[in-house]
Design goal:
The complex is a heterodimer of chains A (363) and B (146). Chain A has 363 residues and is α+β, with helices and mostly antiparallel strands. Chain A contains twelve helices and eleven strands. In chain A, α7 packs antiparallel against α8, α9 packs across α11 and α11 packs antiparallel against α12. The radius of gyration of chain A is 35 Å and the shape is elongated. In chain B, the strands form two sheets. Chain B has a five-stranded parallel β-sheet, with helices on both faces. Chain B has a two-stranded antiparallel sheet with strand order 1-7. In chain B, α5 links the parallel β5 and β6. The chains are: A alpha+beta (363), B alpha/beta (146).
Chain lengths: 363, 146
């Protein structure tokens, strides 16, 4: 033991400690000593409290239930008594404390009193409560979203379907009496209706991402091969090359990861330069935790000021006549990477292709 | 014009008048000889079916061979209708094919339908002449063709 660790220095040390209340009680539980921590946590100065019984720190309910007596008996029986609960300060306010009462004996084995160490855990308690409240709020919001999604899939679709069906009927039964302009009007109506259906479906799909939580080990190389098969005709037509190698096996949601790669590759194929065959490179780098993937193409590129907007659902950068689509793909990609504890971003400039970087970090 | 055995009437159950109108047209122009009855609520449809089979003597009312049932109806919806429908005596359901029609893009609905063995098929709206013809030929025997 350190030469300075004599009773004088130890006592001094206890006195000075101010984040733990370290006090000594006599056999009846009356307060024999006080330290800086006790004053800080419980509010009393030593003058105000010496000689008083430690019962004063307990709440009314605890006193009625004889908690102080029970703790003392346990300390005598088992050597120590531990508790976490509400205690009361000088000003009547409560704090959440962690308490340790230890029975003390003299050389003859006679009980001489108790040591009592108290720590203020109110902050930990408040954080815990705040977390629980927040989780409840999230649960409610989630349920609301599920409801909304269900409503979207039914109630919004029905009127649209009615519009489409009656346009068809109109065309069928009144084609003789409708002139080309009228036919064009009907065409616009039908087109808009179809677009609305498509947008609603996109919204529904977005909300449902990650709902069926099928986590597994996913071989990204095999995944790319599957995507290449799905996009076969586009790849053939454009003479595209998709280059990748040594991609890792990662933990993740199989269906969603396939959608992620498919959307990025499909975009690279779509937004390619005219007369230039798309070349798409996919690579992965290990990070301290997880992987960073890059999907790089030689396409038309994206202006810097749109770097964030493109990930917002339904946001498009081009006319429908130039490039088709509803602006859903990248919003899905963002949600999927976030589902995997990661982030997605793009590096690009007009005319110089784009590099999409995303991290997958599912533990 | 085809006529199928035991397919004398199609019962349409949908709260939207426009949908019943459309589907009635589809069935009547499908080149299949069959009567069409449309009911605009699940509750009324149940009452109609109960009435059809009450009492001893055979009714003059034509029995439906197919029921096209909308899922999304106010008050009692398609699922609730099926619950009540199953409580009717078995023989009443003997030769009726129930098909659930929906605009739902929600795969969960399809799963629910797959689990319910009373629902023979789950189909997306709108009903078309081709899909109706397919159903008729799949579940019923051809009686005559003119």
């Amino acid at each position: 033991m350190h030469p300075a660790a004599d009773s004088f220095h130890i006592a001094k040390m206890f006195e000075d400690i101010d984040d733990y209340a370290i006090i000594f009680l006599d056999r009846e539980g009356n307060i024999d000593s006080w330290n800086a921590g006790a004053e800080k946590i419980k509010g009393y100065t030593s003058n105000e409290v010496l000689g008083k019984n430690f019962r004063i720190f307990y709440t009314q309910e605890d006193i009625i239930n004889q908690k102080p007596e029970k703790m003392i008996s346990e300390a005598i029986r088992n050597g120590k008594s531990l508790d976490e609960g509400w205690r009361v300060c000088k000003n009547g306010l409560r704090f959440w404390g962690s308490i340790r009462i230890t029975a003390l004996y003299d050389d003859h084995g006679e009980l001489i009193g108790f040591s009592k160490i108290t720590r203020d855990l109110t902050e930990k308690f408040n954080t815990q409560t705040a977390i629980e409240k927040y989780m409840q709020k999230l649960e409610i919001q989630n349920k609301e979203l599920e409801q909304f999604v269900y409503i979207a899939s039914h109630d919004l679709q029905e009127p649209l379907l009615t519009v489409s069906s009656f346009i068809d009927l109109l065309k069928e039964e009144y084609s003789g009496t409708i002139d080309p302009t009228g036919e064009m009007y009907l065409g616009f109506i039908a087109q808009s209706t179809e677009r609305m259906r498509s947008l609603i479906k996109g919204l529904l799909d977005y909300a449902r991402l990650g709902k069926k939580k099928e986590v597994g080990m996913v071989d990204c190389n095999a995944l790319i091969e599957e995507v290449k098969i799905d996009l076969f005709s586009v790849i053939e037509r454009s003479g595209a090359k998709i280059i990748y190698g040594n991609l890792p096996v990662v933990k993740g949601f199989v269906t969603e990861l396939r959608l992620l790669f498919q959307n990025l590759i499909s975009n690279s194929l779509k937004f390619s330069k005219k007369e230039v065959s798309p070349v798409i490179r996919i690579s992965a780098q290990p990070m301290r935790q997880g992987w960073q993937f890059s999907v790089t193409d030689n396409g038309i590129g994206i202006e810097d000021r749109f770097k964030e907007r493109i990930f917002v659902i339904f946001q498009r950068l081009h006319n429908r006549t130039d490039y088709e689509g509803n602006g859903i793909g990248l919003a899905h990609c963002k949600k999927i990477t976030e589902l995997h504890g990661g982030k997605i971003s793009v590096e690009s400039s007009p005319g110089n292709g784009s590099s999409f970087h995303f991290t997958l970090n599912l533990l | 014009m085809k006529k199928y055995k035991d397919l004398d009437r199609v019962l349409l159950v949908d709260d939207e008048m426009s949908t019943n109108f459309l589907h009635r047209k589809i069935v009547q122009t499908s080149n299949i000889d069959v009567d069409v009855k449309a009911i605009s609520s699940a509750f009324e449809a149940l009452e109609y079916l109960k009435f059809m089979y009450e009492g001893e003597e055979p009714k003059t009312e034509i029995k439906p061979g197919i029921i096209f049932l909308d899922i999304n109806m106010p008050g009692m919806n398609g699922w609730e209708f099926m619950k009540e429908y199953k409580k009717l005596d078995l023989y009443k359901r003997a030769k009726i094919v129930v098909i659930m029609l929906t605009t739902s893009l929600n795969p969960d609905d399809e799963e629910l339908a797959a689990k319910d063995n009373e629902i023979v098929t789950f189909m997306h709206k709108p009903l078309t002449r081709e899909s109706f013809s397919k159903i008729a030929s799949k579940y019923f025997e051809l009686d005559s063709e003119v």
